[in-house]
Amino acid sequence: MILSHNRRPIGLLKLGLVITSVALFLATGMLYVSQTRQQGLLTATIRSSGWVAYQAQLEFVKTEAEFAKLSLVPTRDGLRELVLRLEILRSRLPVLYDSDEGRVLSGIVDTKDLTQPLEATLDSVIDEVGALDAEDGETASRLRSIDTRLTPLGQVLQRILLESVAYNQEIFRRERALAETPGVVPLVLLFICGGCLALVLYLQGRRDRLRLGEILEAQNAIRAMESNLRAVIQAVPACVAVIEPESGRVSFFNSTAASLVSADPADPAWLHFVQAVHEAAGEAGRTKWGMLSMAYLRSPGQFVSLRGTICDVLWERRHQQLIVLADTTQVRSAELQVMQAAKLATLGEMATAIAHELNQPLAVIKMAVANARRLLEPMSGGEAVLAKLERISSQVDRAKRITDQVRRYGRMPSEQLLPFSLRHAVELAVSFVAEQYRAANIRLTIEPGFPMEVLVFGEQTMFEQVMVNLLINARDAFEARDAGAGPASREVTLSLGCVAEQVVISIQDNAGGVSEEMLPRLFEPFSTTKSTDKGTGLGLSLARSVVRDMNGTISVENVGAGARFIIALPFSPPVLGRNAA
User: Fold this and answer.
1) Which of 89, 231, 307, 372 is the most exposed place for a label (fewest CB within 10 A)?
2) Mean pLDDT across the stretch 538-559?
């Protein structure tokens, strides 16, 4: 937790240092470029401004020299040369203020105001010199007088040149200073950048060490957790095994699983066990989480009832399947005993109806026998005697079916789950309560929605008991509804249908339904709406266990004027002869 809190300030500090380093590098580069430009500008200024002033001053000196030479001995060629010099000087004056170099000089001294007034004087001097004649004796004196008029121009050019020289000296001084100092600032900046980078590397190394410490700590925690998990699994009093989905090989099992199957993971018994689990899970074994109930043949003649789950897990960084099964053999035996007790109690309640049902065929037999004797006395009517005897045979068969139902109902169910015809089982359960419904004036409507060939997987006797319990509960609900009031219309509808890959049995009555506070816990043990002398509260709980063992579901809802129980069961797989359900 402390490491995670320290990581954020370190990351922000690293980001700040990186940004600072980049900014300093950019500043160093910009400083270098700026100094280079300044040096180039200074050099250009020195070369341009000083050179223009110097050229103007040089032309003026040459002109003065030409004036001095012609003042002694005027000649025609000398006058032409003097005019040319004056014109060159005249062309140099606008350059002092009307050019790039002149604008640089204008920043030092006002060359335009100084030189423009003298341009007209120089133009008149050029005209006068051009009009002189070398043969005239006064030409020399006139040249000396004209030369005196150019003295102010010489002074102005001298001033401009001096100002330019002084400015250039200052520029040279600044250039030398820049040449000495610029290396210090970039060097300092580079040292700062290097220090920032070194600090970034240090922080990165520290962060990596922190991360490495966290990873090592997490790995140690995972190893400790795995060790604790294995210890917990070993201590669990249930069969726990981890298998590979593709090969079915067992990669881990606890001591309970070893005692149930084998302590050797290479034992073929494990392969047989895994196959039995997958067959019991069916479609649920291919989902993320599936419930299963199975009977495992541990040794010849010894079945063990197991109930649990199979799910996908990540074990040792691989996707595998986890099997968790609890030995429910004793619980199963207790459930069977309770179921048997409940059936015996129901048989006692139904004894009167069975006796009444048996009295009718016995009376018919007695009368038929009497009639047969009477018809045999005159030895006539052989065909009539045959008919009477046939009737006796059919009634005897009817009595046999009734006694068979009682015997079948009172039989102790087995733990072996096998495919059976669902519709046939429902018809047997309906025939068992048909007389009670007739006596209670309840109309039972059956809506078959699938053929007799549809099979489900389970224990047929226990499923018949579930159907009988639901039908008897509907009968008892009518009696509770009509207690203290006149009888009303009593109807129970039993519907059979197929939805997707499941068969659905629906039992709906119009007996008023289940109270809202009882509805969520109706399938809990000892939850009942009957009085204590009529119900134990175990019938629906056992019904849910039986349906769950068949990989099905049972639910209840209030519909219209009554309640509707819905049982959904998967189709039986086509391959038989398994050890597990």
Assistant:
1) 231
2) 87
Per-residue pLDDT band at 1 (split at 50, 70, 90): very low
Whether residue 517 has pLDDT greater than 70 = yes
Token pair recorded at residue 119: 């341009």
Residue 429's CB is within 10 A of a number of other CB atoms, namely 22
Q: What is the structure's pLDDT at 567?
A: 94
Q: What does the alpha-carbon distance between residue 260 and residue 256 come to, in Å, rounded to a whole number?
A: 6
CB 496 within 8 A of CB 426: yes
440 residue type, one letter: A
Tell me if 581 sits within 8 A of 549, measured CB to CB.
Answer: yes
Closest CA to 299 of 332, 263, 269, 331: 269
Could you tell me the pTM of the whole model?
Answer: 0.40
At 394 the pLDDT is 59
**pLDDT digits 0-9 by tens, 169-212:** 777 777 677 666 655 666 676 677 777 777 877 888 888 888 88
As beta bridge partners, residue 568 has 504, 553
Amino acid 420 reads: F
**Considering all CA atoms of the chain, what is the largest pairwise distance in Å, rounded to the nearest integer?**
208
- Give Rg (Cα) of the chain: 61
- Cα dihedral 50, 56, 60, 61 sign: positive
* pLDDT value, residue 391: 65
**Which 8-state DSSP code applies to residue 48?**
H
Question: CB of 310 within 8 A of CB of 317?
Answer: no
The alpha carbon dihedral of 96, 102, 108, 113 has a sign of: positive
Taking the CA atoms of 417, 421, 423 and 426 in sequence, report the sign of the dihedral they define: negative
